[in-house]
Amino acid sequence: MKQKRNVLYISAITLVAAIGGLLFGYDTAVISGADKSVEAYLIKPLGLGSLAHGATISSALIGCIIGGLLSGYFASKFGRKHSLIAAAALFFLSALGSAYPEFLFFTKGDPSIALLLTFNLYRIIGGIGVGLASAIVPMYIGEIAPANIRGRLVSFNQFMIIFGMLVVYFINWGIANGQTIEWINDIGWRYMFASEAIPALLFGTLLLFVPETPRYLALKNQDDKALAILTRINGSKEAKSILSEIKQTVTGNISSEKLFAYGKLVIVVGILLSVFQQFVGINVALYYAPRIFESMGAAKDASMLQTIVMGLINVVFTVIAILTVDKWGRKPLLIIGSIGMAIGMFGVAGLAFSNIIGMSTLLFIIVYTASFMMSWGPICWVLISEIFPNKIRGQAVAIAVAAQWAANYLISSTYPMMMEFSGGLTYGFYGLMSVLSAIFVWKFVPETKGKTLEQMESIWKKPTGNQHKAG
User: Fold this and answer.
1) Taking the CB of the first residue and of the last residue of the chain, which one, N or C, has fewer CB atoms within 10 A?
2) Residue 290 predicted with pLDDT over 70
3) 173-199 pLDDT tens trace
4) First to last CA, the chain
């Protein structure tokens, strides 16, 4: 009975923390429904083109890069819990500011460059929240979860990211359903952004009732508090031995090890995992989904509905990844996913070159997104949390997460320009990146299934001759 209460307690804590993942997905996908309205309200009246449009739609990613870079400092300086509370406050401010950027300084219905910059500033603020959450939520869950269920609990965060995207697709569709384009371009897009304030407020409030992680408390020499939390989670018998292990790990983590203490390959592999996850083009499909479906001939409501269908597919195939990653291993799933993504994108590219638009295009996009969600979506985050040795993990994860958001920004902001040049070549480029990602995983990424975090050090020992074989 005691063990059941422990599981319920840790599950409740995990669910609260994972609302940060839901907000991560919510904030990054909310723009998909508001995309054309923002263009109609802030871009076209100012006579700006696709460059300004792409930069505005993806401006939150600048904040994501900043938040990713700051995550290590915030988590160490203020703690995991208080860093997440800060992220919740940023989400809340961004939601209201993006919905009504005219507040205090501007007149509604009178777009200007200053108003456009203010809108972008609010989106960047939300992006900083996303950057913090993307790094610190898995860290929080990983540090507070018992070892025997840590994998499932950390993976739940990825599920919540995709679930957040699905929720906002439904909300965007519900707001736009049955309304005129004029109303959506004037009022509807504001409701889409403002809706994020509700889960942000819920996240910030619930975080007040969860504990700080035992690992952070041990780092700050608050051993009594750490022991009390560990006792509630694991029971008194195990708590003392777990605290002893944490103290040893914390001591190791604060050594003066340099970033390249294990060679440069481990850092390069972490960065390229992040870059390939974005260069295959997945966030183009997420951010611009309604526009893509409209270009296939779907009406506004139909494109929103098809986006919801894609969201459901994302959830189903993310669950498949969670259920199979510890059975099949990381490398096989990544390679299979890369092959599926290549088939999907080359199919879309071929149809674009042939000017064929219809159900076949939708099917290839489904193949592409399903392949990503059962592989690179969740497993990239798993690998980034696993491959770095303990002593450099904090620095290395911050660099990898920042690289991921930088690559995300580059791909998302260049999409409108690339599509103006050639739709076929654009999707062909993403297909090529999918092929290269498979080769990269095959040649350079180690298999981490079944290995402890401590065993990562033996994989990445400083090279003596040909020791850097990825395995």
Assistant:
1) N
2) no
3) 889 888 888 888 888 889 999 999 999
4) 43
